[in-house]
Amino acid sequence: MQNKQIYILGVGHNTEVYIDLAESCGYSIGGLYHYNDERTGDKIHGFQILDSTDNLFKKATLEGMAFALSMGDNKIRAALANKIRSKGGLIPTIIHPTAVVSKYAEIAYGVVIHANAVIQAGVKIGNYTVVSYNASVTHTSTVSDSCYLAAYAHVGALTIIHANVLLGQAAITVSGKVAYIGENSIIGAGSVVTKNVEANCVVAGNPARVIKTIQ
After folding, report:
1. Could you tell me the fold of the domain covering 5-92?
2. CA–CA distance from 100 to each of 90, 95, 133, 137 (Å)?
3. Are 169 and 151 in contact (CB under 8 A)?
4. Is 117 in contact with 131 (CB distance < 8 Å)?
5. Do the Cβ atoms of 180 and 197 come closer than 8 Å?
6. Where is the PglD N-terminal domain positioned along the sequence (predicted)?
């Protein structure tokens, strides 16, 4: 177990989950940062909101400071992560001790894998991607940078999930039928995807179909 300090960026409904996750992985919580200063000084489970993210980034350096980013928005999470790294900060990969991650999987930088998730052999997970609790990725699939697999989502075998995709709660891609999900696409909760999804699409249903495109 690690014995390092970490700061949580983003104060919202997911903050408690990230506090619990970080502590489960041996981190101590140094404090929280909110997007504005309206709640500075407040506490969540005894951990203080230290300041706003704007003021955090006014520091000359974040050298040696580690952060976990609790926001679900893929593009915001990636932008903040890159800003932290540009100032010398760290975004450690955090894997809950109950997650099952194959030694033959490739896990990139700043990945978060929650409780009871399953990552099989041959899987590649890109930078800043979040795999929520009980989500799973089947063998020889790729989940690219800055994706979010919500709780109980399932990626079938031999599938490429391109960057910035949101796979909603309990949504699945069917092995052997889906080769790729295009970048920036959103797969609605509970959807069953049986064919490829192009970039910038919102799909939903069983079987999933395009309900709109993202401009």
Report:
1. Rossmann fold (3.40.50)
2. 24, 9, 11, 11
3. yes
4. yes
5. yes
6. 5-84
Domain positions in the chain are 5-92, 95-213
Question: In this structure, which topology does domain 95-213 adopt according to CATH?
Answer: UDP N-Acetylglucosamine Acyltransferase; domain 1 (2.160.10)
- Sequence length of the chain is 215
Phi, psi of 15 (to 5 degrees): -60, -45
Extract the annotated binding site for substrate.
72
**Predicted structure pTM score:** 0.96
Q: Which two tokens stand for residue 158?
A: 């031999």
> Annotated binding residues, as ranges?
72
146-200 pLDDT tens trace: 999 999 999 999 999 999 999 999 999 999 999 999 999 999 999 999 999 999 9
Other beta carbons within 10 Å of 92: 18
